[in-house]
Amino acid sequence: MSIPLKVRSAGIFLALLSLSITTSSCQKKIEEVIVEKAFEQSTGKKVDIKAGGKNITVESDGQKIQIQGNSGVWPADIPADVPMFSYGTIKGVTRFESREGKSWSVVCENVSGNIVKNYESKLKKNGFETVSTIVTSDKGEEGSVSGTKEKMNVMLMIGNGSASLSVVKEP
After folding, report:
1. pLDDT tens, position by position, 81-120
2. Residue whose C-alpha is closest to residue 69's, from 88, 49, 94
3. What is the DSSP string of 72-138?
4. What 3-state class would DSSP assign to 60?
5. Rounded to whole angstroms, how far apart are CA atoms 115 and 46?
6. CA 130, CA 156: separation in Å to the nearest integer?
7. Cβ atoms within 10 A of the Cβ of 106, count?
8. Is the sign of the CA dihedral 165, 75, 3, 54 positive or negative?
9. 3-state secondary structure of 36
10. What is the pLDDT of residue 113?
11. Number of other CB atoms surrounding residue 66 within 10 Å
12. Is 158 strand, coil or helix?
């Protein structure tokens, strides 16, 4: 059974909030304990939160969410069929793992150029069936491209110099 969307969204918000609060204690941080209790009361399930530096991990009932802030690094565990997105600066990576599959979200800044067409070409080269929407203006190219291959879906959205790439892989 999946965590309801509202609870998951609240959890991600709280996880990001706790990233901004740092303490020097070696024991479990009070912020982690508060967020764990909020999750447990909302879901009725045991939750374990681990924060370190700009990274946070939330585990509950066979599900795991990992958030990396300002990672700057392409996720090594993303499926090899997914072309690397190298058109900007990676600002954050989120991973979600459950019995229903895995997903990755990569957020980039400083993105410019004809990226939708270029990335769609890379997806097709790797065997994905694609659909794209491209909007051209004086600011350049914006839009989206989605790709499907077997039990994997990729979605790239670009606008205002930012990009969001999502990958979902079913088991």
Report:
1. 999 999 999 998 989 988 889 999 999 999 988 899 999 9
2. 94
3. -S--TTS-TTSPP--SSEEEEEEEEEETTEEEEEEEEES--SSHHHHHHHHHHHTT-EEEEEEEEET
4. strand
5. 42
6. 11
7. 26
8. negative
9. helix
10. 83
11. 19
12. strand
CA torsion sign, 105 to 108 to 113 to 118?
negative
Q: What is the pLDDT of residue 16?
A: 45
User: Is 158 in contact with 116 (CB distance < 8 Å)?
Assistant: yes
Tokens of 47: 């939750």
The winner for highest mean pLDDT among 1-10, 15-24, 109-118 is 109-118
The answer to whether residues 55 and 66 touch, using CB atoms and an 8 Å cutoff, is yes
CB 164 within 8 A of CB 106: yes
Domain layout of the chain by residue ranges: 1-60, 70-171
Comparing 24 with 141, which gets the higher pLDDT?
A: 141
Which of 116, 93, 102 is CA-nearest to residue 12?
93
